[in-house]
Amino acid sequence: MCSAARATLLAAFVACIFPIGTARAQFFWPHYGSWWGDHTRLRHSHQHRHTKSESTDENQPQETPKGPLQIIISIADQRVSLYDNGTLVARSSVSTGVRRHPTPLGVFSVVEKQRWHRSNIYSGAPMPYMQRITWSGIALHAGELPGYPASHGCIRLTNDFAIQLWHLTKRGTRVIIARQDVVSVEITNPHLFVSKPKTASGSPDSRIIAVADSGNKITAATPASLISNVDTKEISDSQVAGPAPSGAAPQKAIPISVFVSRKLSRLFVHQGFTPLFDVAVKIQNPEELLGTHVFTVMEPENEGSAVRWTVVSIPEQGTSADTTKERKAPKQQVIEARPSVQSSDNADTALNRIEIPEDVVERISELLTPGSSLILSDYGISSETGPYTDFVVLTH
Hints:
By secondary structure, this protein is an alpha+beta fold. It has two domains: 2-46 and 61-181, L,D-transpeptidase catalytic domain-like (Beta Barrel); 186-227 and 254-317 and 340-394, L,D-transpeptidase catalytic domain-like (Beta Barrel), CATH 2.40.440. The protein is 17% helix and 27% strand. The protein has eight helices and 22 strands.
């Protein structure tokens, strides 16, 4: 019986690594292998039952990420890479937008998830296991992968990868889209925020958060007042902290996002999808480019250890005809997995040019938690940033 069970699990794992189709997942690290293999079977149990209740696969086994997830898409390589707590754990092929409908480049996050979504723009086209990253219509979802860019802007994933990724992510998961391959690397810098011990309080509602009024004067507000005008049905349980039942485990703190724009010479802070405050900052040599860099707080390796940061830097470069033209590839083409090398030197240089008021550093440090991020960019906040989004920064 044990031998038969092992053989079944091994077969499922091999099927996950080498799925049938024109584009194939490239590899999975061992600690994700068994979970991803289990979900390969979901394709057969659901492909003819889209109208059935979506709760049917709620009880499927799920691997818990070790820390913050980051999804990185390379347009040139037509590839998606998944990082868990700063470690590359999975990689697969994708199909992105054609020249007339390009996939936007920049910094995004998952703002909505639906198992069986249909396009509101393109004649109700099916978008299974959809993860929306802009409200204007860009999303990750399962679809056909011919081996070259072929979508209307969305990022098509293999069916198995789309299912597996959908079960791992939550609203707010960071998505970075770059023309070339970029990677997440660890970084240390004295200008990065350091978390401060949290002050104990009598109840969750007594916590104070800094908020700016219309005159940019920083004032205080409770979490309840910050979300009073938000439709709570649109916010996941992980986005809103409320009083916990007596005896229940304490809720995890909601990560913050800090955005510094060279264009605006301003710093903005969100907690979850909720704006907290914004203040002016000084940038040395403001006429020189900073680049776009996404710093993220990871889970510590050991309890009580120092805050661990990673960074993904998006290089500025012109559009290359080789990376944008729709070119056909052999049906069985598999994109070669090659290591990416990235230095944190440019990110260090950018950090060293930002001067943030000390009181603002203190406030941010008090709110810092794993999953929190700092984005530096030459650009301003995209119009895609709205009531139910984290910061959206377009880099093209």
